[in-house]
Specification:
This protein is α+β, with helices and mostly antiparallel strands. It has 2 domains: 99 residues, TATA-Binding Protein (2-Layer Sandwich), CATH 3.30.310.260; 117 residues, Hypothetical protein, domain 2 (Endonuclease III, domain 1, Orthogonal Bundle), CATH 1.10.340. A hairpin with a 2-residue loop joins strand 3 and strand 4. The structure holds a DNA duplex.
Length: 280
DNA sequence: CATCAGGCGAGAC
DNA sequence: GTCTCGCCTGAT
């Protein structure tokens, strides 16, 4: 186990901000579990000290990048227009959020599934998919878990079996996208070398990926922080708070981070009180 | 009972 | 290019 002192880092806020569907509370205490890049991790936090239940080597190799530890979120929050009371309040409220650097293929499928869906059901869909098509593994502490299914595994699925995973009409989207990636119709690794516009254009070629989903993939996997996913929540919030339009130009290269503050702020308003701010 | 969830594809125009 | 409509399913 290793400990890291970090400013602007809240495990609970990261988990509840809705960008990662395979992170959850585990057990009765404030531990969280997470499966990413085929690894199982448990972590928890006391104040600004974060405890990672893994080796220093694993932290350096995977989790340091995954949790975006080298980005200065204080600087980002400081740059917000002081006159913009709503954005200041949202950023302050969700100041422990980080934009994770998640796996590209997993985000592609996860956000295809997320469309016209709710977070609880999205999590269940992905869990069922992993249990049915992912490789079963065992963590150091003995916990059994499932890796995210490969493109090959999903391309070999029957549509009916995807319906059984509760994907509904998104089943054919997942199937065709898996086939496209498996057959190399899109160069997924190449997306990392492209700019935001180029990467988004490529992602839009995938069946079931539209503008909003492409932006989520750009933001949460490719870390294109200028990507600003607009969903029904964000659309409503922006309409209510910015009748003259959101100042996209002012925050051109990191609008996506602010989008997460707004999304989380909006989401938590109707969440049960017990789930809010465990560390405040 | 209707409406809505972190939308998208297809077809009409 | 823009607009409308249908779509799985569970929660409210």
């Amino acid at each position: 186990m290793i400990t890291i002192k970090s400013d602007h880092f809240s495990v609970s806020q990261i988990c509840e901000s809705g960008q990662c569907f395979r992170m959850a509370r585990c057990g009765e205490d404030s531990r969280y579990s997470l499966i990413a890049f085929g690894n199982y991790l448990e972590l928890w936090q006391e104040g600004d000290t974060v405890f990672f239940d893994c080796s220093q080597e694993e932290y350096d190799r995977i989790w340091k990048t995954y949790f975006d530890m080298d980005t200065d979120y204080a600087e980002i929050i400081k740059s917000i227009d002081a006159v913009d009371g709503y954005l200041c309040a949202a950023a302050d409220y969700g100041s422990g959020i980080r934009i994770l650097r998640q796996e590209l293929w997993e985000m592609t499928i996860s956000f295809i599934i997320s469309q016209q869906n709710n977070i609880k059901r999205i999590r269940r869909c992905i869990r069922l998919l992993c249990e049915k098509y992912g490789e079963r593994r065992q963590a150091q502490n003995g916990t059994a878990y499932y890796a995210f299914p490969t493109p090959q595994a999903l391309a070999g699925a029957a549509v009916e079996d995807l319906y059984d995973c509760n994907l509904g009409y998104r089943s054919r989207y997942v199937l065709r996208t898996a086939e496209s990636v498996l057959h190399g119709e899109i160069d997924m690794e190449g997306l990392y070398r492209m700019d935001y516009a180029g990467a988004k254009e490529q992602l839009l070629q995938l069946y079931g990926v539209g503008g909003k989903v492409a932006d989520c993939i750009c933001l949460f996997a490719l870390h294109k922080t200028e990507a600003f996913p607009v969903d029904t929540h964000i659309r409503r919030a922006l309409a209510a708070q910015y009748p003259d339009g959101f100042p996209f130009e002012r925050y051109a290269d990191y609008g996506g981070i602010l989008q997460q503050y707004i999304f989380y702020y909006d989401l938590q308003k109707d969440a049960p009180a017990c789930e809010q701010h465990p560390f405040h």
